[in-house]
Amino acid sequence: MRLSFCLFFSLSLIVFSCKPSFNEPQISLEDYRVEEGFELEMVASEPLLTAPVAIDFDTKGRIWVAEMAGFMVNLEGDDEDLPSGSIKILEDLDNDGIMDHSKTFLDSLVMPRALALVYGGLLYAESPNLYFVEIKDDKPVNRVLVDSLYATVGNPEHQPNGLMMNLDNWIYNAKSNFRYQRKDGVWKKEPTTNRGQWGISHDNFGRLYYNNNSTQLLGDHILPNRLVRNKYFIPRKGVDETLTKDNRVYPLHAASVNRGYEEGVLNQDSLLVNVTAACGPLVYRGGMFPADYDQNVFVCVPEANLIKRNILSFYGDRVEAKQAWQGKEFLASTDEGFRPVNLSNGPDGNMYVVDMHRGVIQHYAFLSPYLKKISAEKKLDTILDYGRILRVRSKDKLAREIPDLETLPAPRLLDFLKDSNGWIRDRAQQYLIHKNDKGVLPGLKEMALDNNSPLAQLHALYVLKGLNVLSFDFLQQLAISGGPEATAHALVLMEDYASEKNVPKAKDLFAELLNRNEPMLDLYLSTTLGIWAKYDQEVFFSFIYDLSSKYKDNVIVQEAILSGSEGVMSALKLKLEEKDNLKNTDLDVLAGASLERQENNRPNYIYSTQIARADSRTNGAILFRQICASCHSSSGEGIHGLAPPLVGSEYISNHLEQLGLIILHGLKGPLLINGEVYDNNHQMPGLKYNKSLSDKDISDIISYVTNAFSVNPKGLKPEKIKELRGVSSKDGMEYTEKELFEQIGK
């Protein structure tokens, strides 16, 4: 009996010793405050991940993470070009909702910044390239270069990112004027509006939302690309609109911000007043929050360690937003390591927060001496090798089961187009297209015509679009019977079937829709009339006249008309001049300006084939490191016995023309810098004869150093640099300090 017990005990030890270990985070959230009725949970943390900047979910509920581990590893921003980044898969092996294991999918990446699970594989950005890889047994196979010019310029704060699949089956980005789509195995790239800076989201209708550092919420009043189809017209309204002018923030503590020394940035309690690094907007579409949270837009404010909530209001021809509260935020913390940089709807209907959790998130090209000093004093630069993902859930909603959509047959996917969770609907739409099962066409068409399920209508419609089975007659039927949103999408898709044959049907349909007196339908009719006018100007110009007169004070409608009219601009301009009530109106003036651009071959820049260059400070930072840092140090503090400091130097703060002369022609001592005299033994050579450096390059260096090493960022225009090239010292060699001030004083 004793032997049997010992044997059982030994076997038990073996069994338990073989049980997998679960490395779940044990991190306190007591420094975090979330809105009443919600709970904040730690889903993943170090050591499973480091410096996450973007996530996506697969249908097993696993989290795919892009890690930007090389970003600002110290206050000088060294080594960001090293292959220290990766993409990982986080798993919950014990099914308790907390990630406990990670596996590396891709490593040795340089600053990976975005990813999306699409087309049965992974699309990801590693500057300057955009890649797509298929996935086999959680390993990458058959990598394809989608775009070698995806992110060619800018620092990590100012390069394209986002990679968000929208309702219309196109993938959109922030900080980019291109969209992407794969059709029949071939990747397509098209111009689109340049949107935002970091992060992008969409609502149920398919409108896009984004932001920039100082504007917490921007967006489009209209569906993508409706206002940019005329290559010689640049819309001023309708896209890239500020949806709320209220950029106030309500932090819990005095966080460290980049320009805190400037008047108005901080209040009397040293609290940030307005956003300075807003990013990562998300339209919540999860279906698990209270009803009044549906399609609210949440915004990351990492510099103040908080997340804002905005409430959207939809009007037929525009979207408006307002902050949910004054005096408080949806989520805020006193933890200066809390750096929310992205948000995501999850397959469980909850909201997920990507917390980069890094002490310094201001890129060195824009890092002010003020923040640099504070960061060093607070030792924020030592907050490294962290990374977290948080989940926000409604207290009164139980966790829901996540359907493995990838494994379901197409007929079963149909029902998920009606799901309350937008993530589920979006993914079901894409899998239905990817599976290409034509057996579900009857069900899809029935759903697209069913006004009782307006959200499913739109998803079913774009599945049909993705399967190439739409027709003019079907879209006409939908437009006649559907509500404003479904009809608006039908009008957009109907353009694929614009032809002389379909003119009579389109004429009758458009007349009927105009009689509804519905602002949303009038707006989308405005966008399409010019396309149809190529086949019958008399019929469709008449509609244009009516809409232009009806909305004479609505610039968006006038621009919408012109956007679709590139092919008939000359004829339209002539007709407008013949009508007293339309001559010299907004539409007439816009048409004239567009024709002038066409005659001078000046298209909208989004259609330019020229490769963009880096912004001035980033380009200046790169050049400074290549040319100047070896003497002045990358921190600008100088190198003893070699070169004086730039930090605090009056040449950097106040005497920019002298600085231009120094960089161009050189400088020899003695010099008085910060009250200290530097001797005669060293000379700084000028860059005037460096043929690889343009006037713009010299201007960019000045832009960078005045930003990085002074509290008064300024610049000299390239035209001034060109002028200073022709100015020289008395002996034609390096300037002395005395000669500099005599020269400028003349």
Automatic annotation (TrEMBL):
<dbReference type="InterPro" id="IPR036909">
    <property type="entry name" value="Cyt_c-like_dom_sf"/>
</dbReference>
<keyword id="KW-0408">Iron</keyword>
<dbReference type="Pfam" id="PF23500">
    <property type="entry name" value="DUF7133"/>
</dbReference>
<protein>
    <submittedName>
        <fullName>Cytochrome c</fullName>
    </submittedName>
</protein>
<dbReference type="InterPro" id="IPR016024">
    <property type="entry name" value="ARM-type_fold"/>
</dbReference>
<dbReference type="InterPro" id="IPR011042">
    <property type="entry name" value="6-blade_b-propeller_TolB-like"/>
</dbReference>
<feature type="domain" description="Cytochrome c">
    <location>
        <begin position="615"/>
        <end position="709"/>
    </location>
</feature>
<dbReference type="Pfam" id="PF00034">
    <property type="entry name" value="Cytochrom_C"/>
</dbReference>
<dbReference type="InterPro" id="IPR009056">
    <property type="entry name" value="Cyt_c-like_dom"/>
</dbReference>
<keyword id="KW-0349">Heme</keyword>
<dbReference type="InterPro" id="IPR055557">
    <property type="entry name" value="DUF7133"/>
</dbReference>
<keyword id="KW-0479">Metal-binding</keyword>
